[in-house]
Specification:
Blueprint: E1 2-3, E2 7-14, E3 16-20, H1 23-34, E4 38-43, E5 52-57, E6 64-70, H2 75-92, E7 93-103, H3 108-119, E8 124-131, E9 146-153, E10 167-168, E11 178-181, E12 187-193, E13 196-201, E14 205-206, H4 234-244, E15 250-253, H5 260-267, E16 271-276, H6 279-295, E17 304-309, E18 318-327, E19 330-340, E20 347-356, E21 359-366, E22 373-376, E23 384-389, E24 394-398
Parallel strand pairs: 2-21, 3-16, 3-17, 4-7, 4-15, 15-16
Antiparallel strand pairs: 1-24, 2-17, 5-6, 7-9, 8-9, 10-14, 11-12, 12-13, 18-19, 19-22, 20-21, 20-23, 23-24
Helix pairs in contact: 1-2, 2-3, 4-5, 5-6
C-alpha cells in the first residue's frame, strides 16, 4: 500500500536540510524557518545561456539522459526572477551575513546593479574572478575564460575571517627576498623597501586576492565529480565557507545542484539549508552526503541528521514485486521489480524504515541498487519501503508479509 510522505530523515549525512522546489515558491516556508538566521548564502544560478541541461546516468545501452533544468529566460525575465531571489536572501541573512553570487559575463553587470539596490552599494565587498582553462578557443574575440563571483555583506558588522583561508608561505623564495634563519631557528625571508625591512616566515600566511587562479575547475575524472554539468569544485566552496562563516553557522544555497555547498558545510562543521527544483538534485545530494557520512570517523566529528523536505510531493502510482525473507530474528526485503507509471527509467535509490506522521525515517539505504536488491528491515510492525527512479519519481510503500 502506498502512503504519502513529505519529509525524509536520515540519522547521518547532516547537519542540514534539503528543500525540493523553486526557492521563490518556497519563500514563505524558508522565511518561517530561517529568517535572519543565515550567516552565508552562496548562489550558483543558471547563467542565462539559452541552453537546456541534462545529465547521463549509467553506461552503455542502459544509460539514461535526465533533464535537470532549462536556462532559457529572457533578460527581463531573468532580472525579475533574480530580484525576487535576492530580496529573499536579504531577509534570510543575519546581521553578520554575506552573499556570494556566482555568474559569468552574460548577466553579472546587470545583476550587480540589483545587488547594489537590494543590499546597498556601500555593502559591495569584492568582484572575485575565477579564471579557467577549459572550453573552446574563439578567434572572433578574446576567449572568455573566467566566472565572476559578486561578494556583498548585509551590514558593516559582517563576519569575515580571511586568516581561515590563508596558506603558509612555505620554503619558496618570492620577489627576490633573502632567506634567513633567526635566533630561534625559524626560516624566513626579508626584503627592504622604501627604507623599511620586511620579514616573513615560512609558516606565515598568504591570503588569497580577488583573482582565484589557484582553484582548478573539475576535470572529467575527478573523484568528487557527480556527473552534474555545472558542478563546482569543493576547493571553491571551502574557501567561501571558510572565510565567511564559523563552525556551527548556517550556510544556505538556493540552487543546490550537485550538492557541493552542503558537502563542504558538513566537512567544515557548518549547518546547511539548501534548495533545488530538480528531484535529481535531491537524489545526488542524498547519495553524496550519505557517502561522506560513511567515510567519516565517529571520533572526529559528531554525526548529525540529514532531512529532505518534499513539501509539494505527489503520489505517483507504482508497482513493486517483492518478498520478505526471515532468518532468525532478522527480516530482509528482496525487491524483484519496480515500475512507475509512465516512467521507464531505472531505480536509483531504495531504503527501508518507518513512518511517523508524514515523515519517513530511513533505517537501511542503498544509493546504487541493482535489481533484484535486498535490504534489511527495521524492527517493529509496518516497515516502509522508499524507492526512487532516475527521473526523481518516488514512492513510499507499507510492506506486508
Amino acid at each position: 500500500m502506498q502512503i504519502p510522505c513529505s519529509e525524509e530523515r536520515h540519522a547521518v549525512g547532516g547537519n542540514g536540510e534539503f528543500w525540493l522546489g523553486k526557492a521563490e515558491e518556497l519563500a514563505p516556508s524558508l522565511l518561517e524557518a530561517y529568517r535572519g538566521k543565515v550567516r552565508l548564502i552562496y548562489l550558483d544560478p543558471p547563467f542565462r545561456t539559452g541552453e537546456s541541461f541534462s545529465m547521463k546516468l549509467g553506461r552503455g545501452r542502459g544509460a539514461a539522459s535526465i533533464r535537470l533544468y532549462e536556462d532559457t529566460l529572457t533578460s527581463d525575465e531573468y532580472l525579475a526572477w533574480m530580484r525576487t531571489i535576492l530580496a529573499l536572501c536579504h531577509e534570510l541573512l543575519d546581521s553578520k551575513g554575506s552573499i556570494y553570487l556566482h555568474l559569468d559575463y552574460r548577466m553579472s553587470a546587470k545583476v550587480r546593479l540589483l545587488l547594489d539596490e537590494i543590499f546597498g552599494e556601500s555593502n559591495f565587498l569584492n568582484e572575485i574572478i575565477w579564471p579557467y582553462k577549459t572550453g573552446g578557443r574563439s578567434k572572433k574575440y578574446f576567449p572568455r575564460k573566467h566566472d565572476t563571483i559578486l561578494f556583498y555583506r548585509k551590514t558593516r558588522n559582517v563576519f569575515f575571517d580571511i586568516s581561515a583561508v590563508g596558506i603558509p608561505r612555505g620554503p619558496e623564495r618570492r620577489n627576490h627576498m633573502k632567506r634567513f634563519i633567526d635566533e630561534d631557528g625559524r626560516v624566513g625571508f626579508s626584503i627592504r623597501s622604501n627604507g623599511k625591512l620586511y620579514k616573513y616566515y615560512e609558516n606565515s600566511l598568504i591570503y588569497p586576492s580577488d583573482v582565484w587562479s589557484d582553484i582548478e575547475h573539475l576535470q572529467q575524472k575527478d573523484r568528487e565529480r557527480m556527473g552534474y554539468a555545472t558542478q563546482k569544485p569543493e576547493t571553491l566552496l571551502k574557501r567561501i565557507i571558510g572565510a565567511s562563516s564559523a563552525p556551527g553557522d548556517l550556510v544556505m544555497d538556493l540552487f543546490s545542484g550537485s550538492g557541493t555547498t552542503a558537502a563542504c558545510a558538513v566537512k567544515l562543521n557548518r549547518r546547511f539549508a539548501v534548495v533545488d527544483s530538480s528531484p535529481v538534485a535531491a537524489y545526488i545530494l542524498r547519495k553524496r552526503l550519505l557517502s561522506i557520512a560513511g567515510t567519516m570517523d565517529l571520533f572526529d566529528q559528531e554525526h548529525s541528521a540529514l532531512v529532505l523536505r518534499h513539501p509539494n510531493a505527489e503520489t505517483v502510482p507504482c508497482d513493486v514485486s517483492y518478498r520478505i525473507e526471515r532468518k532468525g530474528t532478522k527480516r530482509t526485503v528482496c525487491i524483484e521489480s519496480v515500475s512507475f507509471a509512465g516512467d521507464p527509467l531505472p531505480l536509483v535509490y531504495a531504503a527501508t524504515g518507518t513512518v511517523s506522521g508524514s515523515a519517513f525515517d530511513a533505517a537501511y539505504t542503498n544509493c546504487t541498487p541493482k535489481l533484484p536488491v535486498r535490504l534489511q528491515l527495521p524492527d517493529g510492525d509496518s516497515p516502509v519501503l522508499h524507492i526512487e527512479s532516475a527521473s526523481g519519481k518516488d514512492a513510499f510503500l507499507v510492506l506486508n508479509e
